[in-house]
Design a protein that fits this description.
Elements lengths: L5 H7 L1 H20 L4 H10 L3 H13 L3 H11 L1 H11 L7 H10 L2 H13 L5 H26 L13 H19 L2 H18 L5 H22 L1
Helix pairs in contact: 1-9, 2-4, 2-9, 3-9, 4-5, 5-12, 6-7, 7-9, 11-12
Pfam families: AzlC
Membrane topology: Multi-pass membrane protein
InterPro entries: Brnchd-chn_aa_trnsp_permease
């Protein structure tokens, strides 16, 4: 099989890039209604580049959350990217370290999914292909969020269009797939994790702010899930 390069990576990731556009515009409109400028949104998209994390940031900024809580939220929400990046390095074992860092910086759920799909059919994936896969999504997200912010000035009340529900809808979809995966591994495990999260939250909310209690209880649930996986 002929090796695929940068251009093929761009082409293979076009469907996911198109998906970024709709969510990116929705985010831009919501961010604009929260008082953020196109410059601020553009910098957020370039430096943070995390759809769910950026939605959460806007909501926390509006609610007046402190910087530490916002930082911890972004860290935890995007923590999965580190795990995806670590696995991606097992595919690019002969790629120079700096190129692996660049790929890891721009990897997302969608570009990782495209990578895994390609790896099923092609065991010799080039770094250039992965750069193309990452770059088209990065560019589409940045441009669509900025355009959405500029459009937001023409839409004074995005709630009328339901755009403020975009993040919730995204998480519902992720939650359904995650529940399906966890149920397949056993109801008992799912019950224990949910119980740990609930108990952790009820205890921590008496000691810290509710937003920080959510973060810490989520971390407890994640830790328990890893522990239970290790036992198997």
């Amino acid at each position: 099989m002929q090796e695929k390069g940068f251009r093929e990576g761009l082409q293979d990731a076009i469907p996911t890039a198109l998906g970024y556009i709709s969510i990116g515009i929705a985010f831009g409109v919501v961010a604009s209604s929260a008082g953020l400028s196109a410059l601020e949104v553009g910098l957020m998209s370039l430096l943070i580049y995390g759809g769910s994390a950026q939605f959460a940031m806007v909501a926390m900024i509006v609610s007046g959350a402190d910087l530490l809580t916002i930082t911890l939220t972004v860290f935890l929400v995007n923590l999965r990217n580190m795990l995806m990046s670590l696995h991606a390095t097992t595919i690019f074992t002969k790629t120079p370290f700096l190129q692996n860092i660049l790929m890891a910086t721009l990897i997302t759920d969608e570009s990782y999914g495209v990578l895994l799909g390609e790896h099923v059919h092609n065991k010799s994936i080039t770094a250039a292909w992965m750069h193309g896969n990452n770059l088209i999504g990065y560019t589409a997200w940045f441009l669509s969020t900025v355009i959405g912010t500029l459009m937001g000035k023409l839409i004074p009340n995005p709630q009328v269009l339901g755009l403020d529900f975009a993040l919730i809808a995204m998480f519902i979809g992720l939650l359904v797939f995650q529940f399906d995966a966890m149920i397949s591994e056993g109801i008992k495990k799912l019950f224990l994790i949910l119980l740990a999260v609930a108990a952790g939250y009820l205890f921590l909310v008496t000691l810290v702010s509710s937003s920080l209690a959510v973060l810490l209880s989520t971390l407890i649930g994640c830790s328990l899930g890893v522990f239970l996986d290790d036992k198997h």
